[in-house]
Amino acid sequence: MFFLQSLLSGILTGGVYALAGIGMSLVFGVMNISNFAHGDLMMLGMYLAYFSFTLLHIDPYLSLLLIIPTAFLFGCIIEKVFIHRIINHPHQNQILLTIGLGLIMSNSALLCFTSDPKILTTSYSSSAVHIFGGISLSVPLIVSFLITCGITGILYVFLSKTTTGLALWATSQNREAAQLMGINVAKMSAIAFGLGTALAATAGALIAPTYYIHPMAGHTFLLKAFTICVLGGLGSVIGAGVGGVIIGVVESMSSTYLSSDWKDVVVFIIFLAVLLLRPQGLFGKKGEQ
Amino acid sequence: MLIAITAGIASVLPIVTGENPYVIGVMISVLMMAALSSAWNILGGYAGQYSFGHAAYFGAGAYTTMILISKFNFNPLVSIVAGIIAACIIALITGSIVFRLRGHYFGLASIAVAEIVRLSALNFDFTGGAQGILLSDVSLWGLDLNSKNPFYYGMLLVLVVTLGITLYLRTSKTGFYLQAIREDQDAAASLGINLSFYKNKALLISAALTSVLGSLYAVYIRFIDTSAVLDLRLSIEIILTAIIGGVGTLWGPVLGAVLLVPLAELLRSNVIGDALVKHGIVSETSGLGVFLKENLAHAHVLVYGIITVLCILYLPKGILGLFRRAK
Amino acid sequence: MIGHILHINHVSKHFGGNVAVSDISFSVDEKQIVGLIGPNGAGKTTLFNCITGFIHVTSGDIIFDNKKINKLRPDEVCRMGMARTWQRVKPLGSLTVLENVMIGAFSITNAAREAEEIAIEQLDSVGLTDYAKKTAGSLSIGLKKKLELARVLATRPKMLLLDEICGGLNHTETDGILVIIREVRNKGATIVFIEHDMKAVTAICDWIVVLNSGEKLAEGTPEDITKNPEVIAAYLGGGQNA
Fold first, then answer.
1. Structural domain of residue C147, as residue ranges?
2. B120-143 pLDDT per residue, tens
3. Is B186 on the interface with C (CB under 8 A)?
4. CA distance A106 to chain B (A)
């Protein structure tokens, strides 16, 4: 019973992780950049959900309709102002720049909102449904999971069926060739970063009702998102989705059977093991660097 | 030569400044960051292996020393040596994992290893967990360890040693090989360079020096916890200091520390906020004045972030990079 | 096997399902200059990468100086006396030309002073003395190729693998390189080189090995090869303009 309980709640949490991982993977795939500000973008999403709830009295899930376009625009601007200038720089400079952007975001949040954790309490925050008698699943997690599935589905259709989606895919396969074929790769980068930001913010908003909201909240999720990407193969959207669920389950299992203090260590050990044994990830193609 | 002159000037500075404890405290921080960043520079700047997890070696030194002194009453010097050994063991494990990876993966893996070390220190009992370790009393050869002077000279000594090693490396086979690895790993291997041997060599030298600084810091402050000595932010500050001064140059990290540490100190101690109010630029009772007084002290990390971004965009080779390679 | 400095024995290399090199055998005698030719994708560079330890063969043996070297790392292969250059030059860009060559020389000495002396001498022999203090990244492509040659020569190789050392060069530059290659051979080294320029190959080689689609198509003296109808069909016919 314990096993089933932690498996199911792991899958539900993992769904939201997957969303963050997919955003990061998309940015990596199209732009070949590891975005260290990704966690802080999630944190901003958490605050957006919090304030639209407390100030505008909009339900956190409904507020996604507001958050997604805002975050997309924000991401595009960040890309245009900062990221696109370093697309051909060495990796370490890209990492440092995004770290810098992340520090600016988290510490601006610290200045504006103070370090006191905020809690977004909705009428259903602590409600749970009971199935099979002994297993209880948190309602917000179920709703988040369903929304995640919906968004992932839409994203999948967008990437595989629309012209822009295919252009993004082409850019991720080979930037130079895509450019030669007349694809505006600069525009694709902006769109990819915008989408990545929107996905990060959405993931943040979705977990807002179940987590403490504070300026440094992004850091835990940053390294999780990287693990998910590496697990799924950097750049692979489907891989990141599956990777997210795996990490969710691993966390939940190690909390149940080991100790919740060590769950992050388990995640990092998996991360290193994947890097060493299968650097292309579970779904990446062999031979990619 | 320049190292000797600088060391000479630095060694009389405490006397010139009238042994003001606050000023000496800031100068110790400058020396420590200069040495940390110089030690990182051997691996990151010369060998081109950007470690984002150097806090792990700093923490290894700090924790080993503190545990041995506070629980087993070790001689501080012996415990510093033990710290070096601990750091080198972590470095060898890290090296065997991360040096097989290149590009993005190398940076990510170095962070992951450091985070595992941090979380372990946070969760084990013998490291004091979240409470950290407090050291009540320590002595060595009748030195007054309550005064800041021994630590000032200790940090200065490590800095001089680090710069000396860097200078030696630059003119020796190892230094040439490290730079070849930085420029092109395949070309380096094709010229007979054993990549993993030289990368690990650079990492061990760098980790050992970093751990000594961690030990000194721990005995100086007499309190450590994971957020003080193992945090990712420390690793990033170390890199940032080197970047601003000039990565892969002898004096870049020192210059970076001389500029950044006092700036952070100014912001932290809220000197700027106070000055703005004092000179009547901002009224103390106005909303802005209250905001500045309350929050500017927290802003030094924000300023670090801004400097990082500006530096990468406009000065990726650092201040010394502007002058170098004009030939 | 005695008398051959390099012996390639039924070497194959697969990448996943793709066969890049398939069951290739040939031998190189000491002090020979051997040309390795073939259309793009014939497996020439893959074979070089196998010989120099950058990738490992799927099956077969590579014997150099009477020792099996299939499992060695690139740096070990280099220290055994086999050096290579790269099709896409790999200068150590922010180091000076002199420092680049010194790094090659460090494989035979530990002293910086001695490495510098070897490097100066080597730069002189390829005519790069005037550029010693320039950064390697700032050189023209022709000079970068010369630098690469000087750098591997400073490792004092018994055997030299040159991957399109004349690619992208004009006639005068190509001739200059060919003069250097001949001198190196006269001093006792063995040379295998990949080249597209048939004129350069026939002018300098004692022996030619032709690859096509990962397999050995033919080998022989330059006269034989240029008359071989299979070679003409596969390579000279289709790839002349390349």
1. 91-156
2. 888 887 777 777 777 777 766 766
3. yes
4. 8
